[in-house]
Design a protein that fits this description.
Distance between the termini: 17 Å
Strand order of the largest sheet: 1-3-2-4-14-7
Number of strands: 14
Shape: globular
Structural class: alpha+beta
Number of helices: 17
Largest sheet: 6 strands, mixed
Helix content: 40-55%
């Protein structure tokens, strides 16, 4: 499930939100094979969402690209997650999409089926984009109907990020990696009794948690014909679990939850604010939270339940090329630069996720901060135990995520029963998936 917070990076400064970043670059070199003839010029526009840290890293890579390529002008723009897609939809409606577009997995089929993305097999075949050692499962997440429309630029997994320093102060050991949901609730109750006032044991609010929960019970979150695979009773159980913890003062309050949904930035998350010990999140958030905090963070696997593993390795973000691009070869070279240039990889680190290329991981890992190495180690420890997704999310899965947020809020703030909220959610999800 794609939610409003599913792929967002660190907080975005107000002045940076509207900033346009520009570098001059060219055509030949480490960006990949092919392109304009020597002396020709081209211009590409690159758009992404994220915060100041991501913008700084990305601009440094664009500058590197410019040093290696002298004939291409790269204009870059970034914004927060919600504003990004509002702007992108406006650009799409006017036929003026950026040449290189950052997308999350749930958006790839949506934009492809509207004819807005370029099919990239040609550029893979001629090695302009080299995916020969990129994780196959992540490659497949960028395919629609067997054709490639998006290239992964980093992978992540869902898990539990926790404040290790706070656990130590409370005198509580971290939970076992194979703890069950029932045992985790008991663990949180014990932990809560040892925390200072105003600090909650857990913040559960994140899309990959719901997805993992349902995939522990069903083959996938969605059926092959793009309907939800779970039942109203399953959603009721999920909402009731977290409401029981909230009623006991263990799960974050409805007010904190509402603020988190509305802000959708890393620096607004309760764990980053020191108001929660555990947070269900993607692995690449660990570093985004850690740079905001003095306490030391760590990570473990989400609790187990149901019949099977529900967690999975996800292509955390993709780069796609607009179907309307006037310089698709250069756009493809730019993507390849992100995947393989040694200096670019060191700058990017794992902020967008662990590199999907084996060679890139080997190059980057020794250069990482200790907390970023934790992210790589987590994926190394648990990727083989996770269960790969067998199908892409439906086109409107983001709207299902929004419906889940509304259901959560109706329970947390408006005293709607989990059963009634689940009923409304199922109706909203069905409408979203058929619109």
């Amino acid at each position: 499930m794609t939610t409003r917070r599913a792929f967002l990076g660190a907080a975005l400064g107000a002045s940076a939100a509207a900033a346009g970043l520009t570098a001059c670059s060219g055509v030949a070199g480490s960006g990949g094979g092919g392109g304009n003839a020597a002396g020709d010029s081209a211009e590409i526009l690159v758009n992404w969402w994220g915060g100041d840290d991501r913008a700084k890293r990305t601009q440094q890579v664009i500058s590197l690209f410019g040093k290696a390529h002298s004939n291409v002008k790269v204009t870059a723009s970034f914004s927060d997650f919600n504003s990004y897609f509002q702007k992108l939809n406006t650009q799409a409606a006017g036929g003026g999409l950026p040449d290189v577009i950052q997308l999350g997995g749930g958006y790839v089929p949506q934009y492809m089926r509207k004819g807005q993305l370029l099919e990239l097999t040609k550029y893979v075949d001629d090695k302009t984009i080299d995916i020969s050692d990129v994780d196959k499962g992540q490659i497949e997440q960028g395919q629609v109907d067997g054709k490639l429309y998006a290239v992964t630029i980093g992978g992540n997994m869902p898990g539990l990020i926790y404040n290790k320093s706070m656990l130590e102060r409370a005198g509580v050991e971290p939970p076992d990696a194979d703890i069950t949901w029932d045992a985790f609730a008991s663990y949180l109750r014990t932990l809560q009794a040892k925390l200072p006032a105003g600090v909650y044991a857990v913040d559960h609010l994140e899309g990959p948690l719901f997805t993992t929960w349902m995939r522990q019970r069903y083959p996938e979150e969605y059926t092959p014909d793009n309907k939800v695979a779970y039942t109203e009773a399953d959603v009721t159980e999920y909402l009731q679990y977290w409401q029981d913890l909230r009623a006991a003062g263990i799960n974050i309050t409805g007010q904190l939850e509402a603020a988190e949904i509305a802000n959708s930035a890393a620096n607004a998350a309760p764990i980053a604010l020191g108001k929660a010990v555990f947070a269900s999140q993607w692995t690449n958030y660990l570093g985004q939270f850690q740079i905001l905090m003095k306490d030391q963070l760590a990570m473990t696997r989400l609790p187990s339940g149901g019949k099977q593993a529900g967690d999975f390795v996800q292509a955390s973000q993709f780069f796609s090329v607009a179907a309307t691009s006037k310089a698709p070869q250069v756009a493809a070279q730019f993507i390849n630069f992100f995947l393989h240039d040694a200096e670019a990889l060191k700058i990017l680190g794992v902020e967008r996720g662990v590199p999907a290329s084996a060679a890139a991981r080997g190059l980057v890992t020794p250069t990482l901060k200790p907390y970023d190495q934790v992210q790589v180690q987590f994926m190394s420890d648990y990727a083989a135990k996770a269960r790969p997704k067998s199908q892409l999310d439906p086109d409107n899965s983001a709207a299902v995520g929004d419906a889940l947020n509304r259901a959560e809020q109706s329970v947390a703030l408006n005293h709607v029963s989990p059963a009634a909220a689940a009923k409304k959610f199922m109706s909203d999800a069905a409408k979203a998936l058929t619109s």
